[in-house]
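Sorry to interrupt, but I need a hand with the structure work. I would like you to pick a protein and set down its sequence and fold. Please put the record directly below this note.
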Amino acid sequence: MKMKLLTVLLGVVGSVFPRRVIEVSKTMALGPSYRNTEDLEPRQWFVTAVRIQSLLVLLAGVYALRRSDGAEFEVPSKPTLTPMESDTESEEE
């Protein structure tokens, strides 16, 4: 549930503030290697692409939140090593 909410939050932030997301990403990715990352200006098509991508992330997060029924995937503490019925039927054919 927390990851789904984080996805929605990142989608909202990226779609409302695409230039700020680009600035933070630029600093994180290029900062260790380049001295003047603040001088780099993104082109308008890139800003639009970041906004569209963020909207898609937002939609995916909202879809995941609406689709979830409250049950989370549980990993069994002790795995079963016996084949399931559907696995044995397909091997016999």
Remarks:
- The chain has four helices and no strands.
- The first helix runs from residue 2 to 16.
- Helices lie at 2-16, 18-30, 44-67, 85-92.
- The mean pLDDT is 83.
